[in-house]
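Q: My labmate handed me this sequence with no annotations at all. I'd like to see what the chain might look like in three dimensions before we decide whether it's worth expressing. Could you predict it?
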Amino acid sequence: MKLKNLTALVATTALVAPMAMAADMADEMTIVSWGGAYSKSQLKAYHEPYSEKTGVKIINDESSAEAVAKLRAMNEAGNVTWDVVDVVAADALRLCDEGLAMEIDPEEHLAAAPDGTSAEDDFGDLLVGDCFIPQIVYSTTFGYRTDLVGDNPPTDVCAVFDLETYPGKRALEKRPINNVEWALLCDGVAKEDVYDVLATEEGQEQALAKLDTIKDEVIWWSAGADTPQLLADGEIVMGSTYNGRLFSVIEEQKQPVAMLWDAQVFDLDGWIIPAGLSDERKARALDYIYFATDTQRLADQAKWISYGPARASSAPLVGQHADLGIDMAPHMPTDPENAKNTFLYNYEFWADYRDDIDAKFQAWLAK
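A: Here is what I predict for the chain of 367 residues:
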């Protein structure tokens, strides 16, 4: 299934699930996410309102980057300690295929839109898996130091491979995803052919060979906060990270950093509920999901971070930043001006090839 009409999601009225009897639900839950500005946006839009309404204590865990491995280990040990987990779509598909996430029925488990539109229709094509509840459309893109590029700011993603024009360190994520796609694009592969090429041994070697040309100038990051900090400290000239992280360093911290939207990679992020929870914990997790993914809550998250809500009915409700008072729509990856040249992440490809290409990439890094 392809992502369609993402530009309609730039930038819906709280419908709260009928509450089960309190005695039938746990009064504490662990919610796993990514940390930083993103977790803050969830805290403000979802966690605090839910705790205020229900009295439930929410424990925040910032282990989403390791979610697949940790859920596999928990399942193997028969001790699942997480209740709701934020993951990217490709990881949700893997977890669902392995029976580590419970299936979700949108009509039963998710709130309808305020005008009565079913959740299934409101989320539309972004319901990409049986276990995945989409939350936001985000992108991975590049930020650069405006004071280190002189009078020639970069305009396309291939600037990251141009060490002559833009000397200095770069930051790239310590995994193949996005890096190999950009490498092929900048090695002459047409956008529509990237995943066909990447499915071959030769294509994978081609991508790594292109990355070899800048390998000595790369600082590899693992946490989304790394690149913004490296940019703020002036340790790199440019680096990849999530657009919401760059929004924070640019608009909130007022650092001399600008966004390079070219070939930004669109992706989905959302919730899964781990399989194997007790009835009480599952009931609480489902209740939280119903609450946190309604129209208004998804729009509210955009008050805190520049990610587009995954429900069509949420888009018209996106307004100003809660603290800065600036219009958030132009800072969304799905804004038409920002989305002139996007690259659509193929979550199905990565669900199939992730483990194999990860192993090859890590072996290349170790050379």
